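Quick start: read one record
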Amino acid sequence: MTQALAVDSKRTKRLRKRQEKKASKSSLAYASGFLDLPHEIFLEILAILRPRDLLALSWVSQPLRQFILAEEDHITKTVIATRYAALAKCFPRPVLLEHVDPASRPALQSPLRSKVQALHQRPFQHIQPPDPSVVCTCLTCILRWNSLCLALDFAHWQDNLDKGEPIPMIPRGTSPQWNQQLIARHADHVAWSLMRPLWYAMILEAHLDSTIRSIRRHGLNKGNRRRRFRMTEEDVRAGTDAFLERSGPPTVDTPYHRDNYYMLEAYLPNRSWIADRGRWVYVQADQHDRDVQIAVLWSSSS
């Protein structure tokens, strides 16, 4: 009769290592096998995935990572157009300073603009201001930066809001370490999203999830008779923001404090409902260029 191997014997450890190595090789071969598909078909498959799934897939193997990075712009553009068309218009990205006309940069970085900027860069407890040496500081870009940071912060507190647990209050004039780390992490994500479209798409994905959870949460509050967005379970399963194009309540109120999160149902800035047209109208994409021109004119006249 064959003697059973000891659980912690050297022989069983060697056997376990061989099995793990074999499994690792087979999984890598399986993942790399996707790359044998026709290029267009593989791109279509990737475009179906959610942003966080694309990020996870990029960690499976080096060949997959290289492929996704090489095609990131194309894949992400398709994903956003399919899943987050409305949110992308509500949350456009600020512009990197390096992409601003060099002749306009001195006007944006002029000390004379500090008082003007202070009106829109006041020290929010839940937003870390952008680095003016990296991000354009025209009014449009500051508001865009704030909106993206708010989307991440709102997403962070969804579990508290769902469970009815209070969000920690920060006494006026204080800045606890946990909050500094939190808003710095959100600022890093937003800054990274200016260079990596996949990280931008993940912000839109997170905010769609926050909006769905918030609409559900407010829908369960029978005492809340305010007008709200019509959202069905089919809308949720679709995984897109198409239902947000329907008529609904105003969504431009900025949550200047985390206390505003409790009553916030849908934060969708940069748009207004035009009843005569029966649709939402969004802020034009070239608003950044106009604000830069205004900054240059203001600087030259000062």
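The chain has a mean pLDDT of 86.
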